[in-house]
Amino acid sequence: MNQSKFWKRLIVLGLSAALLLSGCGGGDKSGGSKSEDQSSASSSTDKSEGPKDYSKYNAYMDLYGELSDIEDILLVYFENVDYTKEFAVLEGGDYAAIKDAVQFYTGHAYRVQEALGYVDEEPAYPEVDAAVRALGDSPEKMMDALDDLASYMSFDDYKDDNLARAAEIHADLWEALQVFGTYYGEMMDAMDDLADETRDDDMEDMLNEGQMILYNSRLMIHASEDILNDIWEQIMAVADTADPDAEFELPELDKTNISPLFDQFNTAYEELTAAMAKEEEQEKVFTGPVAEGSMQLYTTKVNNLYVKMGELANALNEGLDYSEVYDNASDALSSMIDGYNSII
What we know:
The protein has 16 helices and no strands. The protein has helices spanning about 5, 10-15, 40, 55-80, 100, 110-115, 125-135, 140-155, 155-160, 165-200, 205-210, 210-240, 260-275, 280-285, 290-315, 325-344. The chain starts with a helix and ends with a helix.
């Protein structure tokens, strides 16, 4: 297996961190994601203050998702275009190969401005605040360039003009990359750390308020994340010492930590499906005229993750190549997280 191909899976795992938390233990559909640093946590623990406002955290998570989408495209772009100021297709590169990665891309510039509007607001997230401030409007400029690239590729203009406009689009992309490329990694890393630190913050509130669908969803998601991350860490430990020019072989995994996590995952799935079968629990989460459709869609995502994680478990237990099932489980996890974020 090519190591560079497998390295791209880190992006999928990163997206799995983009989990929004409910500002009032699950009942508030306005969203909100909890992430408080130590200096502000003590002032927000008094339940008499009412629901916590996680708007800032959510705005940062939205920007995180945008940066991940951009990174996905840039990886493909610079596999085919030289990483230099002057536009040139790499020897052996294929400009047309960029189309699949970018043709449906749409940047959401308002998320950049929304995040920038929070950098000086409380609560303070020092590392993330600094990275967002340093990024400035470079993600918005990158989105503009990628929107142009998407249009250029989608309608096959690059074929009609024999790449005449490709250099102009590359110049805009390269200009945005000078700031974006310097700081986006810092923002992603800082946000990953913050998400790890705060992922259990409102779990107790959910349990106390009887939000069993949301509570068990989170347990299922967390167990999946921990399984995938454990696998990833073992792979990277081997990759770090492997010959970069040799064909990479997936290692046989130590399942000491993974097996109990699969047990936790299965228990969470059983508890979640039991809760979703109860009308009183459904009414706490799925409301309004689209309640039934929303529940059906979310149920599909839950079941899909259960199936894909089961396929991963089987591959590990039987000593099979687990690269594809790992990818499928990662995709299913990201899909369930998207579904969860839509119902809180």
